[in-house]
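A further point concerns the way the authors explain their paired sequence and structure data. The central task, working out the structure tokens from the amino acid sequence alone, is never made concrete. I therefore recommend that a typical entry be quoted early in the introduction. An entry of this sort, consisting of the sequence and the corresponding backbone structure tokens, reads as follows:
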Amino acid sequence: MTPRRRFVVVEGERELDLLRPHIGGRARVENVNGRKNVQEVWRILDERGLQNFLAMVDADFDEVVGRNQAASRLVYVSVADNSGDSTIDLEAALIRTRALQDLCETVIGEPLVRLGGPVRYAERLREATRKAAAAVGAFRAAVMHLFEERGSIQGIGELTSDEWAAVVDAEDGTVNRDTLEDIVQSRVRNVLKYPDVRQRASDFARDEGSGWLLCRGHDMTEILALRFSHLTGQRMTRIDVEKLLCSNFRGNLLAETAFGARLEEFCGVG
């Protein structure tokens, strides 16, 4: 990392692969493997006063609970000036683009015709997935916030594939609220008072408007994997969906995502 050439520091290979075609000729993209590592690199370089870099991290639920700090060279994916346009990570940002429609065409193929066509089906799928992920995300944010008030950093963790199948209807994407609450309650029992968790989740759901800031990308791709598996009869995993989502993104990442404007300005692209 030389002080002369511009470079962008990212969390992982997926960001590396997505960004290189757009900014590879103007800036080097460096993968440092993980959000904490990106933040540490940013801290060190910022203390040295370097101006030729950007550090790019997922906003995650830190954005929702107010933990993210504003910094000139730390870019959060994908927080926009208009919160209605914001998401909290790369996968969720891609789901808001044409990439979801292209993914549906790749995975489902011809049966999309009887489902209303790729455009209409992708719109319905996106909206149902947003609603389901936001319902889960409200509880994720609530638990994280309540633990933080106790001076601890904890969450509800990952749901198993069986839990996802119990929480989200594979046919229409609706959420079984009772099952979701049972799972959350089992994760925090004897640690947090569940009525506090429920109330805080309700507060986040009310305050976050469209709900996109409550949508964790990995939760959305778990839901998509569940629904694609049901529709096609062939099992798909979250990883399968995320790889295809990225490979099917054919748009201009700098123009179609909220963080793209920062990158475009930094790299002088466009």
